[in-house]
């Protein structure tokens, strides 16, 4: 046993269920339990927290599944960041692991957990020491350094809990915990952004003493319309329409698939159709790209806040005049080179100020960046998740199936599958990247990317639930699927 195997063996983990397959009701129960814990963590404030400089980055917290200022401040950021780096290293051949074997998958999962824990530690220190989550001055008896380490420990604890919750959801629940956390957080934000009367939860419902602007787009439309604010009403209704269109298009694209006819070699006249979704890699490429962009923006702003106005990092964070003003988190909206990672609200800009060549070029670059990133991560995801033609062909052959009209040979099945899997990987990734970018540019709720992710995640959960329920009802289907 190597030193790496020794490290992996001592890492804490969640034991898989003893039975080969959990009943459907059991998986639903654990999924609901994890969801309740996720919302509970987001409502537990950090002890000793003073200034919450990350609170203004709400649009980043949505993608990261985080709630800044609580035990959920790190969200899924460390897990996704570690996974991205590991996939890039494996895809580039720097780290070579055979993911088609159980030993290779075990090593990959072990290294993924080590990377996640490492980033939990690193991001905990970065958030606190760079001033994102500053200790409170009210605790006079405690030194600032001690309070900082107390905050770091709480962030580390919350990150580890989220990592284990993701593992529990993957082994005992339905689907991925990362997807579940993103969908839950975004659904909550969409409801608040659509129906809230105020930007604070304390004034979520209408009150006779309420004074201030209406935040919910549903109410903002009627409020602007009755007050004669036509541009405001146009922005509100365009946001609602864009959200509905993204929802409809994403649902339609997710349902598109190619079905390959397969037959049982020994049973004439009986067969099935092997489905290959048009968006072959589902929502994972967009999750990885959006999380990467959000993490880069957040880290850049933290570095600018720490190093000050004369630092080289300002050239990245604020390059409007080729220098940056000191002041840390004042401003909120990313500018400069980092702004290309944060797509502008093109539709709102056209309604309020008219067409601008600068906004158009920035929007075009953002679309290309989202498409390119989605394609790149889609290719890596196919190779690392067992969705490549070789793995699919092996699964088909092990199930006793073959393609009608061809002899029973794994190489033939693999070659035919590659005709579809290769183009679907690229075309599906380009489609989902384009949809995510357009959703952001049209100002759909939850930054567009959020609602796209939510639709795709919920649809994937629907497919998983339907498949689990079918296998509960029909033992022959369960036997065929090898569950």
Overall description:
The chain is mainly α. The protein has two domains: 22-193, Preprotein translocase SecY subunit, CATH 1.10.3370; 230-483, SecY subunit domain (Preprotein translocase SecY subunit), CATH 1.10.3370.10. The protein has helices at residues 3-10, 24-41, 58-64, 77-91, 102-129, 144-172, 177-195, 217-227, 230-255, 284-307, 313-317, 346-353, 357-384, 389-398, 410-441, 449-473, 475-481; strands at 49-52, 133-135, 257-264, 271-277, 401-402. The strands form two sheets. Strands 4-3-5 form a three-stranded antiparallel beta sheet. A two-stranded antiparallel ribbon has the order 1-2. The longest helix is centred in the last third of the chain and has 32 residues, at 410-441. It is globular and about 70 Å long. It starts with a helix and ends with a helix. The model is unreliable at 199-212, 309-334 and 476-483 (pLDDT under 50).
């Amino acid at each position: 046993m190597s030193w790496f195997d020794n490290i992996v063996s001592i890492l804490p983990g969640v034991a898989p269920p003893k039975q080969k397959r959990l009943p459907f009701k059991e998986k639903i129960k654990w999924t609901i339990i994890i969801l309740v814990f996720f919302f509970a963590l987001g409502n537990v404030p950090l002890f000793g927290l003073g200034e919450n400089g990350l609170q203004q980055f709400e649009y980043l917290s949505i993608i990261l599944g985080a709630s800044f200022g609580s035990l959920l401040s790190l969200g899924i950021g460390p897990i996704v960041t570690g996974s991205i780096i590991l996939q890039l290293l494996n895809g580039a051949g720097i780290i070579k692991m055979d993911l088609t074997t159980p030993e290779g998958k075990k090593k990959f999962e072990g290294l993924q957990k080590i990377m996640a824990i490492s980033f939990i530690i690193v991001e905990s220190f970065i958030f606190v020491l760079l001033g994102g989550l500053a200790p409170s001055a009210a605790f006079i008896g405690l030194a600032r350094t001690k309070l900082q380490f107390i905050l770091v420990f709480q962030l580390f604890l919350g990150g580890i809990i989220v990592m284990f919750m993701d593992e529990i959801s993957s082994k005992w629940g339905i689907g991925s915990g990362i997807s579940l956390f993103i969908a839950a957080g975004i659904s909550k934000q969409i409801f608040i952004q659509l129906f809230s009367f105020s930007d604070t939860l304390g004034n979520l419902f209408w009150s006779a003493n309420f004074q201030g602007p209406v935040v919910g787009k549903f109410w903002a439309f009627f409020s602007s319309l009755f007050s004669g604010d036509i541009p405001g009403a146009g922005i509100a209704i365009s946001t609602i329409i864009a959200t509905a269109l993204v929802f409809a298009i994403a649902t339609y694209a997710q349902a598109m698939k190619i079905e390959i006819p397969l037959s049982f070699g020994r049973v004439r006249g009986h067969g099935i159709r092997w489905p290959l979704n048009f968006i072959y890699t589902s929502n994972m490429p967009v999750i990885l790209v959006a999380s990467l962009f959000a993490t880069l923006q957040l880290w850049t702003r933290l570095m600018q806040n720490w190093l000050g106005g004369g630092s080289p990092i300002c050239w990245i964070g604020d390059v409007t005049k080729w220098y940056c003003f000191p002041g840390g988190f004042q401003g909120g909206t990313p500018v400069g080179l980092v702004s290309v990672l944060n797509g502008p609200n093109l539709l709102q800009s056209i309604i309020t100020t008219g067409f601008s060549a600068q906004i158009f070029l920035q929007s075009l670059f953002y679309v290309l960046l989202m498409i390119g990133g989605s394609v790149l991560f889609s290719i890596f995801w196919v190779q690392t998740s067992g969705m490549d033609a070789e793995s699919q062909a092996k699964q088909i052959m092990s199930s006793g199936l073959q393609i009608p009209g061809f002899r029973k040979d794994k190489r033939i099945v693999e070659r035919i599958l590659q005709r579809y899997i290769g183009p679907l990987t690229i075309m599906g990734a380009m489609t989902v990247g384009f949809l995510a970018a357009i959703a952001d540019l049209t100002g759909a709720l939850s930054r567009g990317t959020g609602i796209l992710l939510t639709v795709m995640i919920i649809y994937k959960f629907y497919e998983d639930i339907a498949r689990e329920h079918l296998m509960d009802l029909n033992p022959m289907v369960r036997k065929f699927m090898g569950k």
